[in-house]
Hints:
Cobalt-precorrin-4 Transmethylase, domain 1; globular; Rossmann fold; alpha/beta
Amino acid sequence: MPPLIFRKGLDLKHEVAGVLAESYHSELVRHIKESDFRFQSGRLEVHLAREFGFCYGVDRAVDYAYQTRKRFPDRAVFLTGEIIHNPHVNDQLRAQGIRFLSDPGESIDALNSDDVVILPAFGVTIELLDTLQDRGCTMVDTTCGSVLNVWKNVKRYAEGGFTSIIHGKYGHEETRATASQALLDGRGHYLVVLNEDEATCVCDYIRGRQPISSREFLSRFEHAVSDGFDPGRDLQRIGCANQTTMLSSESLKIGEMFRVAMRDRYGEEELDTRFRAFDTICSATQDRQDAVIALLAEHPPDLMIVLGGYNSSNTCNLAKICSGRVPTYHIAAPDGLVSADEIRHKAAGDAREVITTGWLPAGRVSVGLTSGASTPDNLVGAAIRRLEELSAT
């Protein structure tokens, strides 16, 4: 008998609604939304982006995790890894007694049919899913619908003999899961490109402008290609996809770069048989990017605060959008607002956390604020209260 898999919740939504509201909602944020997304206190004015914070997929995943704990109070409940890229939320789940297989001391090898395993919003690889099924674990699948849409397209690419070109981070859980879907019955292949520079290298190879040999190509993309990948063979027919949380404008540009490269190499008449593309940026990611661009245009702030996990791709991309236009500080949590003089943050495009001094201007100050799709409203509210406190000193 196959193991039980819950994919549409566990019919306990109302039973966990109270604890979810207590843990993640904010009356202050609700009030600010009702006040045209504006908060005024003394010399401080805060403008919230009109789309920010928890998206539907994240909200659903967290809801399912709490339902799982409620449904199976006497059984061991595990997550394969972080349910979303937000340390506060993951710590809250640990406090509920949910164990993370990615934590030290935990092992998938110890799982058995008595255990319950939650699959995160990013999804999991086919290999991991097969392992969990073989062990007979009960599973609760919270994979986001936008991710499933990407999987559907890369499966079609594989069925048609197309290699999937995935714009994403090859080490990211979502991209690893998507890449596994591209290996349909062992017939498909994939290549992950991180940015325009990597895409340019691949496009030059497609055109026959080979500044690097096949061996050098494979060395450069060593961790970003499927086993047995042959660039001379596997770049003759390609289909573009992306990690759903990447910068939308960059994904679209990279897709166009590959379309032009394939046209240049094979001619317009063969393009339909050699190139495929679908826009697989999720709507929530797009909405949050559009909203922060609108905020910068309509209410140009003195500085931007972007709140969310440092390993959250969509949050990092919001910071990237803002940083070219206004001083921008990506903070992981409200305690990054150390004092009126010091802020602990990560600069856009830099992996390191740093402390910057003199970040909060004197006199009247306008602050733009947004947060990634994995950041709950209670942290947004706490950040605003901290800004209010610091601006009053």
